[in-house]
Specification:
By secondary structure, this protein is mostly beta strands. It is 0% helix and 53% strand. It contains no helices and eleven strands. Strands 2, 4, 5, 6, 9, 10 and 11 form a seven-stranded mixed β-sheet that branches. Strands 1-3-8-7 form a four-stranded antiparallel β-sheet, with no helix packed on it.
Length: 116
């Protein structure tokens, strides 16, 4: 089974930073699109940042060069460095992996990020 387990969320003040991690196991396809989504209370799920097998990276406009997605292939870990957080970044952040960047097949439970 494919499993994704996020960690690193928390409560921070505006302007502070957080680094999210996603441990991926069981995904055996050599091709993938992997990344982060977020959903604020009462809001729609938004794609935050994605990375493909080829190394192509795509960020949402609202990231505005504050976030950096990366992967530690040797440990099967996906990372999201989030700098200069604002209250608008408050959401449940989840990682996902699959063949489609728009709707990856597999998703984790998420880790809560709260910015005040």
């Amino acid at each position: 089974d494919v499993q994704l387990v996020e960690s690193g969320g928390g409560s921070v003040q505006a302007g502070e930073n957080l680094k999210l991690s996603c441990a991926v196991s069981g995904y055996t396809d050599s091709n993938y699109c992997m990344g982060w989504f977020r959903q604020a209370p009462g809001g729609e799920r938004e794609r935050v940042a994605m990375i493909t097998t080829a190394g192509t990276i795509d960020y949402a406009m609202f990231v505005k060069e504050r976030f950096t997605i990366s992967e530690d292939i040797s440990r099967n870990v996906l990372l999201l460095q989030m700098n200069n957080l604002t209250p608008e970044d408050t959401a449940l952040y989840s990682c996902a992996v699959g063949l489609s960047c728009s709707s990856p097949n597999y998703r984790g439970q998420g880790t809560q990020v709260t910015v005040s």
